[in-house]
Amino acid sequence: MDRIPIDVRHLQTLIALRDSGSVSRAATWMRLTQGALSHHIKALEDFYGLPLFVRKSAPVVFTPAGRRLLEVADVVVPLLNQTTRDLVRMKEGTTGSLRIAIECHTCFDWLIPAVDAFRARWPEVEIDLVSGYQSDPVGLLHQGKADLALVSCSEPETGIVIQPLFRFKLVALVANDHPFAQKAYLGADDFRDQTLITYPVEDDALDIVQLLLKPAGISPPRRTTELTVAILMLVSTLRGIAVLPRWAVQSYLQRQYVTALPITSTGLSAQICAATRGDQSRTPYIAEFISLIKETSSRTLPDIELCDPV
Fold first, then answer.
1. The CATH number of the domain where 185 resides is what?
2. What count of other Cβ atoms lies within 10 Å of the Cβ of residue 202?
3. Rounded to whole angstroms, what are the CA distances from 81 to 94, 96, 109, 270?
4. Of 37, 64, 81, 252, which sits 20 to 30 A from 218 (CA to CA)?
5. pLDDT in tens, 51-62
6. Name one GO biological process term (predicted).
């Protein structure tokens, strides 16, 4: 055997397949079609004459040959990534800061793992959170007060690059003894005579209002509180109903404090995007942080679907 057919893309493909658990998600991570990703795997299998993973296993189960190649990938890929970052720094003297503005009260469940991974890879970049909830995080980009904004996806703005990160399911939360608790799902009209319990934000910042209630001409009374646990306490005592991402309340649902219901018969999804100024969208450490959000969120959050790169 006088040549080795492995290149870094093959190794990255194996890691993506393991970490994502499926061919479709791995293809999204790698920015490939499923066919192209399968071709990478088949090329290796054909060369070595051995299967690398069990087809139709969920999550993916690797064969001994696949596990051996993954051992190599886990050494080589991080080393190459670190070398690339070192060379970028040598060329550009890349240091700086990453100031993040958010308009989401429930971002921290998926933001902190990405921050931890980023700090390990870019220790010389100072990362900071613009204090408090921001009603107009994109405005902070225009003002030069933030470098990255995490927002609900919106219409493009001049000078701003919007990159979709992932879609997620919203769930309606009701008391376990609420009359709605036995319903298969809630529709727009179910909210008409209910108090909607939310964080203290404007209507335009609420996905449930923008995606479902406003188009239906429904404007229920609202009660607000800053804390997720306070929202759930009000829900559990029949003071109203709430709508949140499943990830924000997963631990409470496991304890059966409240009941979660789908919204509409097909489920209601919202989307999180990363926004940067156009002149910063290709800054190496900002681009990598955005990639890390997608990678870590895919591993840790329930009911999300990674968005295709733009």
1. 3.40.190.10
2. 8
3. 15, 19, 26, 32
4. 252
5. 998 888 878 899
6. methionine biosynthetic process
